[in-house]
Write a structure and sequence with these properties.
Order of helices and strands: HHHHHHH
Helix content: 55-70%
Number of helices: 7
Oligomer: single chain
Radius of gyration: 14 Å
Structural class: mainly alpha
Length: 132
């Protein structure tokens, strides 16, 4: 996976709105999933899109979160809670409120780790997502 070439400090990342962290984390997770699907399958783009959207969905992220949340550090748990509890400007069309809130927290953690240059930690946490 790629690395952030201009990381910010953890203090700077903690000062960002958790929804902004989730915005970055959504892109990080989407690329991670797409990259793994392209490497491990030989499907055409239509099928790749269908598979990736199921994994990257709020429901799919919530299921993954059940497996990786015990691995979170104290800082990651704090970022997760901030993301989960943040006021969001939109609502999910295809997920429960709980799943949507949890997925926002998950994405906030990924955004936090990416922006602080901790791509190895992202790889460690997401290795279980390859089972999907």
């Amino acid at each position: 996976m790629f690395k952030n070439t201009q990381p910010i400090t953890e203090a700077q990342a903690r000062n960002l709105n958790p929804v902004v962290l989730a915005y970055v984390g959504d892109a990080v997770y989407s690329l991670y999933v797409r990259e793994n699907l392209v490497i491990t399958t030989d499907f055409k783009t239509g099928q790749l899109q269908k598979l990736s959207s199921g994994i990257v969905s709020a429901h799919g992220q919530s299921e993954l979160l059940d497996r990786i949340m015990p691995l979170f550090t104290e800082d990651e748990n704090d970022v997760f809670r901030r993301g989960r509890n943040a006021k969001k400007g939109t609502k999910s069309k295809n997920a429960s409120v709980g799943e949507y809130n949890r997925s926002t927290g998950f994405e906030a953690v990924l955004g936090y780790l990416y922006l602080t240059g901790n791509s190895e930690r992202i790889e460690f946490l997401l290795k279980d997502s390859d089972e999907n």
